[in-house]
User: Which sequence fits this backbone?
């Protein structure tokens, strides 16, 4: 089994990366591979809201100048699990990560649910405040995609400012380890369900409504 982890931090070895690595170590103990994709230092534009991905049905965003996003979408599609991590910027998801998630998860949703039924988890690195709100916002993507979401023994928010300071948040690091263990367990449950022909419910066609009448 394989997990694709998305590092939304511009720092290659910052606190977000260290949290992802902590989870990856727990997955490795259960013979689950992790591929880490560093997108936080890329130039990624926001969603156009054009709907072309829904019209074309080719599992791609039409933006031409950051093809890396489409490469990541395909890797996420092929993986058994997806882990998303971000630092907190102004009490929210880091800008590049937000743009990436908007596009990747919209392509998934408009192309038959590419991430549906996979195991999905999120984790957040924060200096002081805004962590829980950011963690909640990250989980919106996983919930929208109808993913299986493992839990931990507290919200997956770990505190630290300079790279490495998250290691001093002992409770936070335990939260990351427990999330890794529970993610591995969830991955095995999904794999076991497939082996015993326990199928997902049929995907319902999306109903779109507006409250403006």
Assistant:
């Amino acid at each position: 089994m394989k997990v694709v982890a998305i590092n939304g931090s511009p720092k290659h070895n910052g606190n977000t990366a260290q949290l992802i690595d902590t989870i990856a170590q727990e997955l490795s103990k259960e013979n689950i591979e992790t591929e880490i994709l560093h997108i936080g230092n890329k130039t990624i534009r926001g969603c156009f809201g054009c709907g072309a991905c829904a019209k074309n049905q080719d599992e791609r965003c039409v933006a031409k100048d950051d093809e890396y996003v489409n490469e990541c979408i395909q890797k996420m599609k092929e993986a058994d699990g997806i882990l998303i991590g971000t630092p907190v910027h102004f009490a929210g998801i880091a800008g590049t990560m937000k743009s990436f998630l908007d596009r990747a998860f919209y392509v998934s949703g408009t192309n038959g649910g590419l991430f549906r039924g996979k195991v999905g988890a999120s984790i957040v690195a924060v200096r002081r405040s805004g962590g829980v709100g950011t963690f909640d916002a990250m989980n919106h993507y996983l919930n929208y995609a109808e993913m299986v979401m493992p839990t931990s023994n507290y919200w997956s928010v770990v505190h630290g400012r300079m790279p490495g300071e998250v290691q001093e948040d002992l409770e936070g690091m335990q939260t990351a380890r427990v999330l890794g263990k529970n993610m591995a367990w969830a991955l095995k449950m999904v794999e076991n369900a497939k082996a015993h022909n326990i199928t997902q419910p049929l995907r319902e066609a999306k109903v779109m409504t507006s409250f403006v009448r």
